[in-house]
Amino acid sequence: MSEHATRTIIYTVTGQHISHDYAAPDAVNESCRYLQAMFRLDETWNGLRIEAIFYNRSVTAEPVPLDESLVCEVPAVVLQKPEREFYCGIVGYGEDGYRLTSDAVGVDLGGAAYTQGRTPAQPEPDLYARILAGLAGK
User: Fold this and answer.
1) Which residue did the predictor score with more confidence, 7 or 38?
2) DSSP calls for 5-66
3) What DSSP line would sit under 72-100, residue for residue?
4) Would the CA dihedral through 42, 48, 50, 53 be positive or negative?
5) Which residues contact 122 (CB under 8 A, 6 or more apart)?
6) Which residue from 94, 91, 51 is spatially nearest to 75, judged by alpha carbons?
7) How far is 108 from 99, CA to CA, in rounded Å?
8) What is the C-alpha to C-alpha distance for residues 127 and 34, in angstroms, rounded to an integer?
9) Which contiguous run of DSSP H or E holds residue 136?
């Protein structure tokens, strides 16, 4: 995770329902590597391989595999203008094709002063880079 200041949204998942502690608009769109998501899961999710799903009305980010910390960055792609809201849910995978999904919950964002093109954007790691980083950490 980042060594810079961050804001962590805590998501609580009970069965297939997800909620969060976010008080809008505590963060704004066009943020990059600032917002983190932390997941608190009930026993329904024990033993499953969990992925976080983030999307907005325009784009769905690549699924984010969660490690045992259950913390990840909110992908910058879902925080881009003109969007003022993004959604999050999780999917759990088990043996023999077992899949458990949560519903999704929205997070409102304030508008940003940042304008694309005036300040160089920080690149978001692509899926291949994340896979390699995950393999290196094992």
Assistant:
1) 38
2) --EEEEEEEETTEEEE---SSSSBTT--S-EEEEEEE-GGGTT-EEEEEEE-SS-BPPPEE-
3) EEPPGGGG-TT--EEEEEEEEE-GGG-EE
4) negative
5) 32, 33, 76
6) 51
7) 28
8) 19
9) helix 127-136
As a residue count, the chain comes to: 138
Residue 122: both structure tokens together:
């920080």
Backbone angles phi and psi of 127, in degrees to 5: -60, -45
Best CA proximity match to 79, nearest among 103, 112, 118: 112
Q: Residue 2, SS3?
A: coil
Tens of pLDDT, residues 30-40: 788 888 999 99
Confidence at 137, pLDDT banded by 50, 70, 90: confident
